[in-house]
Amino acid sequence: MDIRKADQHFIHTYNRSTTFVRGEEMYLINDEGKKYLDMGAGIAVSALGYSNEEYKQGLKDQVDKLIHISNLYFNEPAVKAANYLCEASGMDRVFFTNSGAEAIEGALKLARKYARTKNPDNGGEIIAMEHSFHGRTMGALSVTGTKHYREPFEPLIGGVSFAEYNNLDSVKALITSDTCAIIMESLQGEGGIHPASEDFMKGVRALCDEKGILLILDEIQCGMGRTGKMFAFQHYGILPDIITSAKALGCGVPVGAFAAKEEIAQALVPGDHGTTYGGNPLATAAVCKVFEIYKKDHIVEHVNELAPYLIDKLNALAAKHSCIKDVRGIGFMQGIELDVPAGEIVGAALSKGLILISAGTNIIRIVPPLVAGKEHINEMCRILDEIFTEKGI
Ligand SMILES: Cc1ncc(COP(=O)(O)O)c(C=O)c1O
After folding, report:
1. Is residue 66 a contact partner of residue 59, using CB atoms and an 8 Å limit?
2. Which of 143, 230, 282, 352 could disulfide-link to 128, CB 3.0 to 4.6 Å?
3. Is the pLDDT of residue 1 over 90?
4. With the C-alpha atoms ordered 233, 234, 236, 237, is the resulting torsion angle positive or negative?
């Protein structure tokens, strides 16, 4: 496809360079028949890869039964999907959305409403983290810790302040009697693949308990098995009050969710929140299939089995190439920090048939489909080795 022509009717928010027409297992095929190994999974979405027959059949069956009804009625897949999500996360009630950003919007609304059921005068202040990423809608942007994403769109929602991730004192310093919630990713993705330290996660939980503040954990990117637990917070032995999910929740069908513990969820009543499409039968049939396939095919166990291999291979690359400053992450969510712009390496990889994504300016983000095998890890590392060697870095 002529890229210039293809781009002429899109608002230019992305620099796209090729057109994919098909997916096969771990590979995407473009309109010229070239095959690419996908280690980005559509930005941490396609956890099952591209050829899961059971997943595709589940969607086809649902298309034949019922694609959409309004949220004024129950639909069977939504009921089942809500049960699965509650069971997997330890939450009690779910609201399905169409995207991650909308899940954040709902979580923020719920936190403010809950605080005001306790104290009608609560100012609804929210503490978020520097370098966080929660999405592009106005509310989600308001709690996103990267200034250059926020500033062109100000004024955003008020009452948000930013603490330093993994620095409990900086969180403490921002708490006031008007603070209703602390929101953070369990493992920062877009901000550069920074896992929460155990002390920080437990410390924030304890602080929230002590001060009567809600802890919202954004599991949109790091959840759904990516770190070797169904949700990344489960590595820390704590339970948040509200979680957000999306991305691999539907493995490609657009769906997100926010979920909360019973007492908190009760704060939203009919009329407080809504969505036309959120939780429709097609989207939630995808969610059901995802949970069922994860269980049957031991997807999370596979991540735990293969992650040490991935980490070893990345560390071997780091030992060989001085441009690699750090390798960090949990499970199948790894970052390679470089002393050169990541975009250059991502571009070179694409021309060699490898799809990678960056995080920030100098970090390569490895978020493959969770079904990636040793052969795919080897292929990725071979291409990266080739690129670094060619560049002499
Ligand atoms: C941690 C996190 N939260 C929220 C979002 C926003 O999700 P969406 O792009 O589906 O709106 C993203 C997207 O990358 C994310 O990584």
Report:
1. no
2. 143
3. no
4. positive
CA of 369 to the centre of ligand 1 (A): 17
pLDDT given for residue 164 in this prediction: 98
Any atom of ligand 1 within 6 Å of the Cβ of 135: yes
Cα distance between residue 191 and residue 358, in whole Å: 10
Q: Say how many C-beta atoms besides its own lie within 10 A of residue 139's C-beta.
A: 21
Say which residue the tokens 């007492």 belong to. 263
* Phi, psi angle pair for 319, to nearest 5°: -70, -30
User: CB of 260 within 8 A of CB of 92?
Assistant: yes
CA 44–ligand 1 middle distance (angstroms): 10
Q: Find all residues with CB under 8 Å of 304, minimum gap 6, and list them.
A: 228, 331
pLDDT (0 to 100) of residue 384: 98
- In this prediction, residue 6 carries a pLDDT of 87
The model carries a pTM of: 0.98
Q: Residue 99: CB within 6 Å of ligand 1?
A: yes
Q: How far is the CA of 376 from the centre of ligand 1 (A)?
A: 25
Q: Are 145 and 162 in contact (CB under 8 A)?
A: yes
Backbone angles phi, psi at 384, to 5 degrees: -60, -45
Give me the torsion for CA of 205, 206, 212, 216, rounded to 10°: 0
Q: Are 195 and 329 in contact (CB under 8 A)?
A: yes
Nearest-angstrom CA–CA distance, 219 and 126: 18
Say how many CA atoms lie within 13 Å of 87 toward its Cβ.
Answer: 10
Q: How far apart are CA 105 and CA 370, in angstroms?
A: 28
User: What average pLDDT score do residues 36-64 get?
Assistant: 98
The CB of 105 under 6 Å from ligand 1? The reply is no
